[in-house]
Amino acid sequence: MTDAEFMGLAIRKAEEGIGAGQSPFGAVIVRGERLVVAVHNTVWRDGDPTAHAEVNAIRQAARALGTIDLSGGTIYSTCEPCPMCLGAIHWAKLKRLVYGATIEDAATAGFSELRIRAQRLAEMAGSSLHIVSGCLPAQCRSLFALWKQSALARAY
Ligand SMILES: [Zn+2]
Predict the structure, then answer these.
(1) pTM for the full predicted model
(2) 113 included as an active-site residue
C-alpha cells in the first residue's frame, strides 16, 4: 500500500471518531508493509487529555506487537502531531512520520495547539525522524469541516 492509501485509512478512522462524538484526528501505524493499528482520538470518550490519535496508536501498537520498540515503523497522522505526540513518536523509535493537515489548521478549527511545527521541533531536538508533510492535505483538512457539522463537536 502507498502512503496515500494508509493515510486514507487514517482519514476513515477519524471519520469514525467524528461519528462517535470524538475529535477529528486519526492515526495508523505500519511496520514493513504490515498495518499494525488504525485508531482515532478518544479524548472525550476516555476523559483523557492525552488520548490523541498518535498516542493511542503507539499504545495499541506496542501492546499488539508486545514491544515498546517500534523502530522501523511509520506513523500516519491526519494532522501534524503536537509536541506531546512527537515526543511519544520519539520514545517509540518510529522511523517515519507522514501527516496531512497542519497544526495551524487544527488551531484554526479551535484547538488550543502549541504552535511548534513538527519539523522544527525534531530539528531542535536532534531527532532523526523522517517527516513527510502534505499527504492528502485537503482531505485531512476537510475532517475539521465534517466535525464542525456534528452536534457533538467540542474542541479543547
Ligand atoms: Zn497530540
Answers:
(1) 0.97
(2) no
Render 112-130 in DSSP notation, one character per residue: ------HHHHHHHHT---E
Helices 83-91/118-125 angle, 10° precision: 50
Sign, Cα dihedral of 41, 93, 29, 125: positive
Catalytic residue among 15, 54, 80, 113: 54
CA of 107 to the centre of ligand 1 (A): 12
- Give just the sign of the alpha carbon dihedral 95, 97, 103, 109: negative
Surrounding ion ligand 1 within 5 Å at CB are 52, 82, 84-85
DSSP assignments along 77-111, one per residue: EEEPPPHHHHHHHHHTT--EEEEEE-HHHHHHTT-
pLDDT one-digit tens code per residue, 1-55: 999 999 999 999 999 999 999 999 999 999 988 999 999 999 999 999 999 999 9
Question: 72 CA distance to ligand 1 centroid (A)?
Answer: 21
Ligand 1 mean position, distance from CA 81 (Å): 5
Smallest CA-to-CA distance from 29 within 83, 101, 117, 88 is with 88
